[in-house]
Amino acid sequence: MDSNTACNDKDKKKTVQHSMLLCCKLYISESRNKEALDLIERAVKRDPETVIVNKFEDREYNRVRYTLVSYVAHDSIGCPIYSPLHQSVMAMAEAAYEAINLELHSGAHPRLGVVDDIVFHPLGRASLDEAAWLAKAVAADIGNRFQVPVYLYGAAHPTGKALDIIRRELGYYRPNFMGNQWAGWTQPEILPEGPNEGPNTVTRARGIAMIGARSWVATYNVPILSTDVSIARRIALMVSARGGGLPTVQTLGLVHGEDTTEIACMLLEPNQIGADRVQNHVQMLAEQEGLDVEKGYFTDFSPEMIVERYMKLISSGSA
Questions:
Q1: 3-state SS class at 152
Q2: Residue 70 and residue 64: Cα distance in Å, rounded?
Q3: How far is CA 231 from CA 24, 110, 137, 172, 281, in A?
Q4: What is the pTM of this model?
């Protein structure tokens, strides 16, 4: 084989790898402690094959989300066997558990763990089955290595159980401080519902983790110019599918700063019910309450933009 053929084969293999991509969204209960975030980010930068394509911090919620991308490799019969995301997520989780104590944490967004949620999405030619494979592998390692109870959801769960159902069973949505904040750990240390991985008891400093796999979900938040969180919650319920509003939309009404509240939305089928529908519905309901709303915002890029940024960062060697 001459050098040109070898180079072409290498390029072809690289192209195939980069079309079989997985995205991981890692939600950590911290955004005010820069030293902790620096430690977490240094952990992932040890592996040049995993790219942080986006980071979304919210100081009011005291929560950060990292959007990570890498490839998934397969064996000779097409079964997934390796993704750099696995070790990258584990390294970030280890850094988070070392740097953050949930008992000392507070914020205006629900959470049940230091590493609160990890979700895997397929990108490019990758499949949901591959995302679920990685979610289950990471869940087993986090449960065993860090002794954290882990609940699987979506395609990673044996019966496809939804994230919001599990959260509701565990009291995720109930504020435990000042009526609109979440602080420390106030749940029972022995869990009412057994986890899929890890122990049945909770370490108060670490809490529990949710880990799942599902098709792409968009997150879109709409600020309301009011401090009345009860109105925000009422509007949120009426916008959501659960409250008889927009199908495939899940919502939370939350305090966001000193003079605003916010409708935080998950669009489970963003190509069917998109941000414009949500914005208009929130605006209509807010007007009925005599309130103004601001233009909403996405908290992450689209899948197409994420792939584009990944390819650019990989090719430039700046990952």
A1: strand
A2: 20
A3: 33, 18, 41, 20, 15
A4: 0.93
Q: d(Cα 108, Cα 96) in Å, to the nearest integer?
A: 20
Q: In one letter, which amino acid is 99?
A: A
Tokens of 156: 């990673």
Task: From the candidates 109, 121, 256, 281, give the one annotated as an active-site residue.
Answer: 109
Q: Is 109 a catalytic residue?
A: yes
Strands 209-213 and 115-124: parallel
Residue-by-residue pLDDT tens, the chain, 319 positions: 454 433 333 443 444 455 799 999 999 999 999 999 999 999 998 899 999 999 999 999 999 999 999 999 999 999 999 999 999 999 999 999 999 999 999 999 999 999 999 999 999 999 999 999 999 999 999 999 999 999 999 999 999 999 999 999 999 999 999 999 999 998 888 998 899 999 999 999 999 999 999 999 999 999 999 999 999 999 999 999 999 999 999 999 999 999 999 999 999 999 999 999 999 999 999 999 999 999 999 999 999 999 999 999 998 876 5
Length of the chain: 319
Backbone angles phi, psi at 211, to 5 degrees: -135, 130
Cα–Cα dist 124/106, whole Å: 37
